[in-house]
């Protein structure tokens, strides 16, 4: 739970989370406060990773401060500011409940704070930083082994910093690691999770891509690159392209061309590799849907969408997903713990491909 007018980007999930002061990494406002209450499941304790504590220095941190309290043990940590920083980047508590309090008065400088937490079941190792930052904060990753496993907390998607590359090529090793993991679709931003990656030889050029609500940048040569390895929950490989036995749709457009001939933008034209025009719903249709019959129950880990650029600049900007095992009873896809159907970000033009991951995967025969 977070309260106050000084709260910035905040994601508090059951086993991990991320919190920051308002405007981070810009200068935090004057005369604000935020209180975060962090709770871990019973029988576990909280681990807190200090990503950045840059509060204007003052005597006893009176001008701006970060204070942490452990009500179960009756202990407190801090106050912290720029001239009184935490002694270590990782704070291990013996409590399942910690209160984080940030206060500011009049000041002139300071980025504010960035903090991550996880439970003792999932030690915080990955955080949100580039390889250079990780080397300074976590000796276990110096240098990054051939294959390494780190835990990324929830809330990495909106952290400040850039990523270069895409899931198929890998990522420039200066990319923000956990943000890149969200882009690659190996973890969800809502929950975070364990990430397995390797550091391999770099490539000349990293192509940009839009995936899982994040834009990556086009990047130049790097000595090393990060490759994320997906953990498959079922026996089938994660990156296999599933064959569609049949397509169906709520409607489709019957276009009349310049010669007065009809051309159907039928459901069967929705396959990603189809040449020429694609599927399009009847103009003016509301609640249009496209349905894929996979022939048998399959493990669906994600979806890739693309528009139709032949003569018409058509594409889908956002969509919801539902699935069925029998074609009659449909279940909407929702993020873990969410009460509303998830709305996926689609395409911004008719040329590029956009991918979105399903975490956890959908197990179904029909996807709509």
UniProtKB/TrEMBL annotation:
Ranges for domain CUB: 7-120
UniProt keyword Phosphoprotein, yes or no: yes
Disulfide bonds: 7-34
PROSITE patterns reported in the protein's UniProt record: CUB, FA58C_1, FA58C_3, LCCL
InterPro entries: CUB_dom, FA58C, Galactose-bd-like_sf, LCCL, LCCL_sf, Neuropilin_MCO_CoagFactor, Sperma_CUB_dom_sf
Stored CDD domains: CUB (cd00041), FA58C (cd00057)
Main location: membrane
GO CC term (a single one): plasma membrane
Subcellular location: Membrane
SUPFAM superfamilies listed in its UniProt record: Galactose-binding domain-like (SSF49785), LCCL domain (SSF69848), Spermadhesin, CUB domain (SSF49854)
F5/8 type C domain ranges (all copies): 232-368
Highest taxon above the source species: Eukaryota
Gene Ontology MF terms: signaling receptor activity
LCCL domain residues: 147-226
Membrane protein topology class: Single-pass type I membrane protein
Entries under PANTHER family matching the protein: DISCOIDIN, CUB AND LCCL DOMAIN CONTAINING 1, F5/8 TYPE C DOMAIN-CONTAINING PROTEIN
Name this polypeptide is given: DCBD1 protein
Gene source species: Scytalopus superciliaris
Gene responsible for this protein: Dcbld1_0
């Amino acid at each position: 739970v977070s309260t106050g007018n000084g709260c910035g980007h905040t994601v508090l999930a059951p086993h991990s989370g991320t919190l920051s002061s308002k405007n981070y990494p810009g200068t935090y406002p004057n005369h604000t406060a935020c209180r975060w209450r962090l709770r871990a499941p019973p029988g576990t304790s909280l681990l807190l990773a200090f990503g950045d504590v840059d509060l204007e220095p003052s005597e006893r941190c009176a001008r701006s401060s970060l204070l942490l309290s452990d009500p179960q043990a009756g202990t407190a940590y801090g106050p912290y500011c720029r001239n009184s920083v935490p002694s270590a980047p990782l704070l291990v508590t013996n409590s399942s409940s910690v209160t984080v309090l940030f206060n500011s008065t009049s000041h002139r400088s300071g980025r504010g704070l960035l903090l991550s937490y996880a439970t003792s079941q999932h030690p915080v190792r990955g955080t949100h930083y580039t390889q250079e930052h990780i080397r300074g904060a976590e000796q276990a990753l110096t240098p990054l082994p051939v294959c390494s496993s780190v835990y990324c907390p929830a809330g990495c998607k909106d952290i400040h910093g850039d990523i270069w590359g895409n899931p198929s090529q890998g990522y420039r090793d200066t990319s923000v690691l956990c943000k890149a993991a969200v882009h690659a679709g190996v973890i969800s931003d809502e929950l975070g999770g364990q990430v397995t990656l390797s550091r391999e030889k770099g490539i000349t050029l990293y192509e940009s891509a839009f995936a899982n609500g994040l834009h990556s940048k086009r990047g130049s040569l790097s000595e090393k690159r990060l490759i994320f390895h997906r953990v498959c929950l079922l026996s089938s490989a994660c990156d296999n392209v599933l064959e569609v036995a049949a397509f169906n749709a709520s409607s489709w457009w019957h276009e009349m061309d310049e010669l007065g001939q009809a051309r159907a933008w039928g459901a069967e034209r929705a396959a990603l590799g189809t040449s020429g025009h694609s599927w399009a719903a009847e103009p003016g249709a509301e609640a249009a849907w496209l349905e894929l019959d996979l022939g048998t129950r399959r493990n669906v880990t994600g979806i890739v969408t693309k528009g139709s650029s032949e003569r018409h600049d058509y594409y889908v900007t956002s969509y919801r997903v539902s699935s069925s095992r029998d074609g009659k009873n449909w279940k909407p896809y929702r993020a873990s713990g969410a009460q509303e159907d998830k709305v996926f970000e689609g395409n911004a033009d008719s040329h590029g491909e956009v991918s979105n991951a399903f975490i956890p995967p959908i197990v179904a025969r029909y996807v709509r």
